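Minutes, project check-in

Agenda point 3 was the complex the collaborators sent over. CS summarized: two entities, 769 residues total, and the question is how they sit relative to each other. Sequences were read into the notes so everyone works from the same version.
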Amino acid sequence: MRFRFTSKTALRSIAALAVAGMASLGLAACSGSSQGEAGSATSGTINWWGWTPTNTDEAKDFIAAFNKKYPDIKVNFKLIGISDYQAAMRPALSSNSGPDVFDLQPGAYVQQFGTYAKDLTPVAEKALGSDWKSKIAKIAVDGLTAKGKLTALPIGSSYAGSLWYNAEVFKKYNLQPPKTLDDWKQVCKTLESNGQGCFAQGASQEGFDQDTLQAIANSVEPGYWTKASKGDAKWDSPQIVETLKIWKDLFDSGIMQKGALGAQQYPDINNAFLTGKYAMVMMGSWYTQYATEAAMTQAISAAGVAGAKPFAILPLQFPDVAGKGNTSEMFGDADYGLAVASKSKHSAAAETFVQWMSTSKEGQQVVADRLDTTPVLNGVAPDFTTIKFVDSATQSAPVNEYLKGMASINEPRFALLNADIENAFLAAAQSVGSGSATPQAAAKTLQQAADAAKAANG
Amino acid sequence: MTVTTQRVDSAVGSSSRPRRHRRRIQAPGLPWILPALVLSAGLIYYCIGYTGFLSTLNWDGASPDPESIGLKNYTNLVNDPVFWKAIWHTVSFFIVTFVLQTAIGVVFAVIMHSRIRLAVVYKVIIFVPVVLAPAIMAPVFRQIFAADGQLNWVLGHIGLGFLEQPWIGQDSTALPVIMAITIWQWTGLTFVLYYAAMSQIDPSLLEAARIDGAGNIRTLTAIIWPSLRGTTLALGILSAIGALKTFDVPWLVTIAGPNNSTQFLGTYIYQMTIQLAHVGYGAALSIVLLVIALAMAIVLQVTGRERTGGR
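CS then shared the predicted structure for the full assembly.
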């Protein structure tokens, strides 16, 4: 069936009508979207997706505190395991039914998902003024900024490169925390001879291998790892080769537990440490929360121990494994930041929530008191009068000192790296650990990966 | 329109018969096959074509300006040692799991046909792993095969402590563990299919073999096994395609490690596409996987037909 047009005029008239109709529809759509796009800033429902806080009670605490000030904004938190985060976020953020607020971490996540986030610089300026950068931890802001765009407002910083140990086990066997590689080997020997596991690491997961490697590298030559991450030094240098040799020594000398290459830091090693199987673990500032009685009890219970009895844990500076007298400084960046999805239909309410969490004293105090992540807003610190340690006499001073030390940390953890280089760290760590590659060969592949990443990014 | 067609047909006379015949089939048949056609062509073939297009891009899956790089992803793939590792794992995985599943499945089926007591209970026990989701069983296997897991505990308590290993924590044993889990999981299906196929064998054939003096082994190898060729062929194709698609067990139990020792094409595609955001490279791997799967299915099918025709 065909329409027959008797004249060109009729055809033109209909075409003009069609174009006008389409244009008016388009304008209507545009005007509609500009009016209602952001929604209300003080009411509505927003969906927040993240891999952290891993303890959903913590997220509920944040939301409850937020709702005291903004009772008409309902926040739904959806916890997604970190191993599934990328798979879940890519389609969600591409679609129109993704989250309004989502977690971002410096490095690969900012590079992969930063394009789906609104620039939050105006939000930060509105909340803290034009000099807002001077009021938030610089290391946290830098990692979440990509090409001049603030992809997320930092909620807390996290720092790695430290060990935590079971103070009660050390006391039982009359042990002192190790300060050198030889000390560490001796401590492990003593513990193993008493049937007690010494140190455990989930070496099948990239981030934690990277933490240990960077800590070793900081013992070999402080700051070299950061220089290599920036491209100012080579990965196949003698410093990195020595780092990988020490890493291998951890396996050969029995410091690293058997089967480490097949273990995951979460949940395997976390559970093994919290249930007392091992006395030492490679964890960072986020582990401070387990110094408290409430979080420790809950975590042990979650690890499958009935009638959980909390025990005191203490932070420990990474030993001088290179034997050069260097202090192995910690490193870190934003633990996570909250991004507002550019496709959010409730972006005004989402911005209210993110702004309150990151830039308000009330929001940051709730973050600080959980001891999960270090607050980023200057002047906010955990209120230790309300926090109950497992063993206050043993833990209070060392934990306070540990947290105070965070202020001077200036080496980044993930911010300078992309996913390909992080993947290369895992390959190097596993091939050296298993003995299938020499430290020299693994260092060479690291450099090749860095070169390839540099070439790909121009 | 119909009139026009008839006029043309009558004009060309007898030479137009095949065309007229085809039109008669197409006109009433098209609506019937249209839903399936749309589903197949629109969903499956479009996706394959689109994946083929993606494989020519350097794209992170998010940026608005993907770079067209022609066949570079394929040349990179040929030079990628992890890709060849994954291929080798797939081949060895197929051979080992298929041979062992077949052997165990046939033996179980023969035993179940020999009228043993509590046969139903045994059948259920053998088949239960087939219906258990790998996601549910993976944490259990991680615990069993851990360095301080139950397998080592048992070995230590029966005087075989020298065999204790970090089973999933070292290159040499991680892949055999994945194979063992797969065999445990799928032997039940192999058994059921062989059991059903054996029920189709003419009892008089077995009786004649007995009269001719054939023992159990001879009957199994000369009568029963040749009768199961069709089932074996079908299982071979399913196992081959299953090996190519392997993802859940190696990913959930060993995260394709350690040191890529349990890396398969499926896990590598996931790592490249999702974790490392190399969507174009992941698509190239997917196309290679598709080509290998088709080639394998055709080879097995043709080989099977030739053998069947020769008999």
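Noted in discussion: Confidence is low (pLDDT under 50) at residues 1-20 of chain B.
Follow-up: revisit at the next meeting once the mutant set is ready.
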